[in-house]
Amino acid sequence: MSRLTITVNGQKVSGNNDEPLLVQLERAGLQPEYQCRNGMCGACRCKLTAGSVEQREAMAFVAPGEILACRSIPTSDLSLEFDYQVQLSPSAVNE
Ligand code: FES
């Protein structure tokens, strides 16, 4: 497992090349939107503006340049953009 840097709406967090992005962002204290967590609903859709991911099988529609955070494993340092401000969880703020 390699350590990576994930930039989310301009904010840098630590990541790895082993787990889905959604899990890694949540561990970093961010709260991206999600519903199904298995590639069905599209709620976790975001733009991949730099870097690369391995996109696992998913049913939800994504436009060119978009990925599903719940089904994407980073393969490099990368940058993501969500269409909304990704909140920090209250527990992360207090740490
Ligand atoms: S949370 Fe449903 S597709 Fe990612």
TrEMBL record:
<dbReference type="InterPro" id="IPR012675">
    <property type="entry name" value="Beta-grasp_dom_sf"/>
</dbReference>
<keyword id="KW-0411">Iron-sulfur</keyword>
<keyword id="KW-0813">Transport</keyword>
<feature type="domain" description="2Fe-2S ferredoxin-type">
    <location>
        <begin position="2"/>
        <end position="86"/>
    </location>
</feature>
<dbReference type="GO" id="GO:0046872">
    <property type="term" value="F:metal ion binding"/>
</dbReference>
<keyword id="KW-0479">Metal-binding</keyword>
<comment type="similarity">
    <text>Belongs to the 2Fe2S plant-type ferredoxin family.</text>
</comment>
<dbReference type="GO" id="GO:0051537">
    <property type="term" value="F:2 iron, 2 sulfur cluster binding"/>
</dbReference>
<dbReference type="InterPro" id="IPR001041">
    <property type="entry name" value="2Fe-2S_ferredoxin-type"/>
</dbReference>
<keyword id="KW-0001">2Fe-2S</keyword>
<dbReference type="InterPro" id="IPR006058">
    <property type="entry name" value="2Fe2S_fd_BS"/>
</dbReference>
<protein>
    <submittedName>
        <fullName>(2Fe-2S)-binding protein</fullName>
    </submittedName>
</protein>
<keyword id="KW-0408">Iron</keyword>
<keyword id="KW-0249">Electron transport</keyword>
<dbReference type="Pfam" id="PF00111">
    <property type="entry name" value="Fer2"/>
</dbReference>
<dbReference type="InterPro" id="IPR036010">
    <property type="entry name" value="2Fe-2S_ferredoxin-like_sf"/>
</dbReference>
